[in-house]
Write a structure and sequence with these properties.
heterotrimer; B: 291 residues; mainly alpha; ABC transporter involved in vitamin B12 uptake, BtuC; 2 strands; 2% strand; C: mainly alpha; two-stranded antiparallel sheet; 15 helices
Chain lengths: 275, 291, 325
């Protein structure tokens, strides 16, 4: 059974189709990458898949529930979590509190009990704090347990968003360019973290430009270009697809196999050229 | 079209033109600085009161009016320099309180410089009503409409054709980019306050012969001007003009046909009703936030 | 145990309680009691308003409207229709909560200056209804209000009111602190920082905003009801736009997102006009200048600015005694 099913998804901004008639499935337990040149509609797609944008047409179903037109918090309550390319950390709170907010859906209680601070609430707060700290350690932020989030380095903030998303106990997590701005060591640690996410049973959807990371972790790749599906399939077949090479390099490449062998490297160069 | 309707329409247009001038002032400052200047109404008061004093002192209109406008513009520049500029980067609420503090200060000052009484200003060209289609209109109303039209045309020329105007527009779209291409953003900010204050003063001088003027005339006018700017969509010049006219006409019509007791409330009922359905006003920028 | 006493929560509540208990030793006559009661009532409004503005980051320039509805609702029901004051107050509070709930959703969809405009408009509409419907409200002249009584017992005298208002303020602060340190309170601070970030972890931002809007309206309404019974009179002045601005200024002056700051702000800005009367004709100018000056020089408000100063000094002392540095 597919976890997420997208059918004929379209998003128009004015006259522009940022995402156009897109259909695909995401299987449980896989790492599903979405790649494509800048402006291909990747982030727009992620925003559609989390309810941040409403589609112009098409359907989004998660575990057979039709979520089309629902608000972002409803997507979250069905078990879809995400991180952001432009960080959306709560900078007015500590790192720990950021993760505690992530547990909101599992913590919330009635207004009366909140205002009068019943004994149940005190216990729940303790648990919440402990579990949030555990998640910070899990993503490798044990050094920031008592830090204010606005004093943390960029790479740590990216992990903080992952910890916060994990705190919602998601079935699927969407990562929007998690490796952007990370140095090679940090990127390697991230690759490791993504691997551990899948072991936890979280299905990962990855939007990423770092081809080494994409090729290293992905089971399945969806290639977008100008909002349309260019190619889709197992990582191995996508990496040898001439259409993909052409979209990335911007010119027709003779497909004799000699060039297609290490597309990952070529693609990386291509990405750099188009940036 | 009945004569009564026509009458309300003409009155509404006159009031609306004044609101439009105020709304333009709000928009110009908002575009340059993202500040809502709650002291905008005080410029109206300063313009009107200064004109009253200067004409009473024996100055002819041709001298008194430019002087009154200049006085208000100076106050506007001082406001930017001493209250807004030092608070750059403060939150929306903080800036609202600062400009409201400034408006209270200016009202207190006006009370000292002048007094608490209502003052008339002689109409520019007599007060014999002119008949139009069964209704009548005061010559002063024609002045209001004519000058407002001239100002709207002048502003669209200024923002569309002159380098300074384009620099101000550029600053409103992207402050950083404007700074990078060499626009003196601080100067733009400074000038926007002067320009808005001048517009407010013109409105105050135009309306004084019809409604009288006093030290606290700016309170309600300022709020209505803000409502008009929001109704049209903050930052949109066309929106400000349309918003002002719509508010003026709606207010006069409902005062005439429904109840004059709630005349001042109408503007706010309309603004709430519009914002419930169009959260960015009639011509405001729409679209989701980028994440 | 000592550590708990030193926490901002318990320590702050104790300090506030101590201030309330000790203040009467300084209050030499009923005039000072009167001002202290006004401070307490304004502080209750500000503690609620701070939840909305300081924590959830939503502006309201119309809260004098809710204060006024509380005052006039109690006045009309208790004085014109002879309801028991307690019943009048509870009914009024429920009605105000219902109104805030109804208008909250469409209004709180708005952001920034549009939200400022809508709340300002709401406040002005309430003001105009109160001044115009003089059959019920007495119009601009106002309305006299019966004293607060429960059964046969009537609450009279500044001293008694002082203790009642003081206790209620303590209760209001305790409620606010409880809310802030709960999942719901964290949700409010989260959506203040990033609404989309809050939404994607499952927070229904619209619902949370409406909830805190209703709570802040209820605080204002209760304070309004009490103020009406205490002073025995209501006038539209306390419903006017300017009173809304005063309330917001108290919150921002004390320090946004600081419950004790809201109390400090209310105390300072309620007593300030009493002090400024010495300036006579210059009073208005000085008040305007004070508003501008504090916002320019202390944009974060008094309490957080002081807190930051203390923190810096503490860190300075710590680093001096730390042998590694």
């Amino acid at each position: 059974m597919s976890l997420l099913r997208v059918q004929g998804l379209t998003k128009k901004f004015g006259g522009l189709n940022a995402v156009e008639d897109l259909s695909f499935d995401i299987q449980t337990g896989s790492v599903h990458s979405i790649i494509g040149p800048n402006g291909a509609g990747k982030t727009t797609l992620l925003n559609l898949l989390t309810g941040v944008y409403q589609p112009s047409s098409g359907k989004i179903a998660f575990e057979e529930h039709d979520l089309t037109g629902r608000a972002p918090h409803e997507y979250a309550s069905h078990g879809i979590a995400r991180t952001f390319q432009n960080l959306q950390v709560f900078f007015n709170m500590s790192a720990l509190e950021n993760v505690m907010v992530g547990r909101y859906m599992h913590e919330r209680c009635g207004l009366a009990s909140t205002l009068l601070r019943g004994p149940g609430l005190k216990r729940a707060e303790k648990t919440c704090r402990d579990e949030a700290a555990e998640l910070l350690r899990y993503v490798g932020l044990q050094d920031y347990l008592s830090s204010a989030s606005d004093s943390m380095p960029y790479g740590a903030l990216k992990r903080l968003e992952i910890a916060r998303a994990l705190a919602t106990k998601p079935k699927m997590m969407l990562l929007d360019e998690p490796a952007a701005g990370l140095n090679p060591t940090e990127a390697l640690e991230l690759e490791n973290l993504i691997g551990r996410l899948t072991e936890r049973g979280v299905t990962v959807v990855l939007v990423e430009h770092n081809m080494r990371l994409v090729m290293g972790v992905s089971d399945h790749i969806l290639v977008l270009d100008y909002g349309r599906k260019l190619a889709e399939g197992p990582a191995q077949s996508v990496r040898n697809d001439p259409k993909v090479i052409e979209a990335y390099l911007g010119s027709s490449v003779p497909h004799d196999g000699s060039f297609g062998k290490d597309i990952a490297a070529a693609v990386t160069i291509g990405v750099e050229m188009r940036r | 079209m009945s004569a009564q309707f026509m009458q309300y329409l003409l009155t509404g247009l006159t009031v609306g033109a004044i609101y439009a001038l105020l709304a333009l002032g709000f928009s110009i400052i908002f575009n340059a600085s993202h500040v809502i200047n709650f002291a905008q109404g005080e410029f109206v008061m300063i313009g009107g009161m200064a004109a009253v004093s200067l004409t009473a002192a024996g100055l002819p209109y041709l001298l008194a009016v430019p002087l009154a406008i200049a006085a208000a513009a100076l106050v506007g520049l001082a406001l930017e320099k001493f209250a807004v500029e030092p608070a750059r980067g403060a939150s929306v609420v903080t800036l609202i309180i600062i400009t409201i503090g400034a408006s209270i200060f200016l009202r207190g000052l006006a009370m000292l410089v002048w007094d608490k009484n209502l003052h008339p200003l002689k109409p520019f060209t007599g007060d014999t009503p002119i008949a139009i289609g069964g209704a009548t209109i005061l010559p002063q109303s024609l002045w209001v409409l004519g000058v407002t039209l001239a100002i709207v045309l002048a502003l669209s020329w200024f923002f569309g054709r002159t380098l300074l105007g384009k620099a101000m527009l550029a600053t409103s779209h992207n402050r950083l980019a404007a700074e990078l291409v060499g626009i003196n953003v601080r100067m733009v900010l400074f000038l926007s306050f002067g320009l808005s204050a001048a517009l407010g003063a013109i409105a105050g001088i135009l309306i004084a012969p019809i409604t009288l003027t006093s030290y606290d005339v700016g309170v309600m006018l300022g709020l209505k001007g803000f409502a008009a700017a929001i109704l049209g969509g903050l930052g949109s010049g066309m929106g400000a003009v349309v918003g002002g006219l719509v508010l003026g006409i709606a207010e006069t019509m409902s005062a005439g046909y429904l109840s004059s007791a709630y005349k001042d409330a109408i503007a706010f009922v309309i603004i709430l009703a519009v914002l419930f359905f169009m959260p960015s006003g009639l011509f405001g920028k729409r679209g989701g936030e980028r994440v | 145990m000592l550590q708990r006493l030193a926490s901002p929560r318990t320590g702050g509540l104790l300090a506030l309680a101590a201030a309330i208990v000790l203040l009467p030793f300084l209050l030499s006559n009923s005039y000072f009691y009167d001002i202290a009661i006004l401070v307490g009532l304004n502080a209750i409004v500000c503690v609620g308003l701070n939840l909305l503005i300081g924590y959830a980051g939503q502006i309201s320039l119309g809260h004098a409207g809710f204060f006024g509805l509380g005052a006039y609702g109690s006045a009309i029901l208790a004085s014109r229709y002879g309801w028991p004051p307690l019943a009048a107050m509870l009914t009024t509070t429920l009605a105000v909560a219902a109104l805030a709930f109804l208008v909250g959703r469409p209004i709180l969809r708005l952001k920034g200056h549009y939200l400022a405009m809508a709340t300002l408009g709401l406040g002005i509409i309430i003001f105009m209804v109160i001044t115009t419907e003089d059959k019920f409200t007495g119009g601009p002249d106002g309305l006299s209000v019966v004293p607060f009584s429960i059964g046969e017992y009537t609450l009279r005298g500044e001293r008694l009111w002082y203790w009642i208002v003081g206790a209620l303020l303590l209760f209001a602060v305790w409620l606010a602190l409880n809310l802030i340190e709960s999942p719901a309170g964290r949700a409010l601070r989260a959506l203040h920082s990033s609404e989309v970030g809050a939404e994607v972890v499952g927070i229904d931002a619209a619902r949370q905003k409406v909830m805190v809007f209703v709570i802040s309206a209820v605080f204002a309404s209760v304070a309004g009801s009490l103020a009406a019974h205490y002073s025995g009179f209501v006038t539209p002045g306390k419903v006017a736009f300017f009173h809304s601005i005063e309330l917001v200024t108290m919150v921002v002056f004390g320090g946004m997102a600081s419950t004790f700051g809201a109390v400090v702000g209310a105390a300072v800005l309620t007593t300030l006009p009493q002090l400024l009367t010495v300036f006579k004709d210059y009073e208005m100018m000085v008040f305007g200048a004070v508003m501008m000056g504090t916002m320019i020089f202390l944009p974060r408000g008094v309490v957080p600015s002081l807190g930051r100063l203390l923190e810096l000094r503490r860190q300075g002392a710590a680093s001096r005694s730390d042998p590694r540095t």
